[in-house]
Amino acid sequence: MNHQHNKLKSNNKLKASTQKGISLIELLVSVTLGAFLLTGVVTNLIGTKASDKTRAAINEMDANARMAIGALRQTILHAGYMSMNNIRLETAFYSEKDGTLTNPTCSDGSSRDYLTPTQNKRTRDGTRDFITVVTLADNPCGKNASGDKLTTCPNDADANPNALIYYDCVGGGAKRDTARVTRCSTDPDIGMTDPTQAKIYSSFWLQGSGENSGTLYCQGSRGGAQPLVDDMESIQFLYGVKNSDDSISYRNATSVNSSDLWGNVTSVQVAILMRSSTNILTENSDKTKYNLLDKEITIPDNRLRRLFRVYTTTINLENRNKGALL
Questions:
Q1: What pLDDT digit, counting tens, does each position of 187-221 carry?
Q2: CA–CA separation, 138 vs 183, rounded Å?
Q3: Separation between Cα atoms, residue 257 and residue 244, nearest integer Å
Q4: Cα–Cα distance between 193 and 69 in angstroms, integer?
Q5: How many CB atoms neighbour CB 180 within 10 A?
Q6: End-to-end CA distance of the chain
Q7: 44 occurs within a structural domain
Q8: Residue numbers of the domain that contains 102
C-alpha cells in the first residue's frame, strides 16, 4: 500500500516538474497580437460605419435631385403650351423684357381668380437663377370627348381628355369652382375674351439664408409659394436658342433677353448642385469650387465638410421644337 502511495506521489511530482506556466515574452506577444487584431476589427467597423454614412448621404442627394429635376421637367416641358385651341403664345417664359403684368377680366366679367407673378419672379440670372414658365389654360369642362358642351364635370372621367394643362406647379391655376368650369381659360364659348391672356404661371427659385439655405420653391398662378426640395446649394438654367441654320446655342437669360430671343428658345438646360444634409467628412474638403453650366460655385467654409454632387439635364420644349435634340 505504501509502495503504491509512494509511486502515485512520485508520478505527481514528475507531472508537476514537467508542467510550465506562460512566460512573460509569450504573454506580451499574445497581448500585442490581440491588440493588433482588435485594432483591425475596430478600424474595419469604423470604416464600414463611415462608408454606410457616406452611402446614405449620396442616396439622399440622388433622391432629392430626382425629385427636383422631376418637378422642373414636368413644368418646363410644357412651356409655351398653346392650349387645345392652338392660341399663339409669343413667349414661353415671363422674363425681364416683360413689364408689370396685370390680371385681365374673364369672359363673364369677373376678376381673374389667380395672380400673375411679381416682377422679382421674372426669368433671370443672378446669384440664384429664377425661371417662370408660361402656358395657356385649357378648359377640361368645356366639352367632353364627344364634343358635347358641359355645364359641370365633377369627376375626372367627365373631362375632355384633350385638355392637358389647367394647373400650375402647386396645383392651382385656371380652376375656378367646384364644378371645374373654367371661365378664365382659352375656351371659345365661356373662356376669356382675349384667349392669349388665359395664362398660367409657374415660378421656380432657391430660397433661404445661412448654413441651411437652399430650398427649391415653386409658386403658381394663385400665389402661395411652396417648398419642394431641401439641401440644394445652387441652380442654373441655360436656354437653347434655335439659330437661323437650325443649330442650337445655349445662352443665359441675360443674353437671351438682351437679344430679345425668347421666342426662339426650344430647350432648357438645368444644372443643380446638391449637398448632404449634415457634415459627412471628418475635415474640410480641399474641393471648394464646383462648375455647373457656365457658372462656378464657391462653397462657404461652414459647409466644406458636407458632400456635394452636380446633376444636369436637358428639357426639350415640346411645344416649340418637335424634333429630337441630340
A1: 887 778 888 888 888 999 998 766 667 899 998 87
A2: 10
A3: 18
A4: 36
A5: 20
A6: 107
A7: no
A8: 55-316
Distance between CA 172 and CA 224 in Å, rounded? 10
Number of other CB atoms surrounding residue 155 within 10 Å:
8
Q: Considering Cα of 121, then 136, then 71, then 143, what sign does the dihedral take?
A: positive
Contact criterion met (CB below 8 Å) for 248 and 317: no
Cell 426640395 -> residue:
229
Please give the tally of structural domains in the chain: 1
Give the distance, in angstroms, between the CA of residue 286 and the centroid of all CA atoms in the same chain. 26
pLDDT of 325 over the 50 cut? no
Residues 6+ apart with CB under 8 A from 300: 211
Residue 47 banded pLDDT, cuts 50, 70, 90: low
Distance CA 139, CA 175 (A): 8
d(CA 131, CA 205): 7
**Would you say residue 37 has pLDDT above 70?**
no
**175 lies in some domain:** yes
**Cβ atoms of residues 222 and 115 within 8 Å:** yes
Question: Do the domain assignments include residue 262?
Answer: yes
**Which range among 37-41, 135-139, 310-314 shows the weakest confidence by mean pLDDT?**
37-41
- Residue 19 pLDDT > 60: no
Give the pLDDT confidence score for residue 323 in this predicted structure: 44
Residues 85 and 135 sit within 8 Å (Cβ to Cβ): no
Q: Is residue 275 part of a domain?
A: yes
Helix (H, G, I), strand (E, B) or coil at 145: coil
Task: Give me the pLDDT at residue 20, please.
Answer: 57
Question: 87 or 172, which is more confident?
Answer: 87
User: How would you class 295 by CB atoms within 10 Å of its CB: exposed for 0-12, middle for 13-18, buried for 19 or more?
Assistant: middle
Q: What is the mean pLDDT of the chain?
A: 80
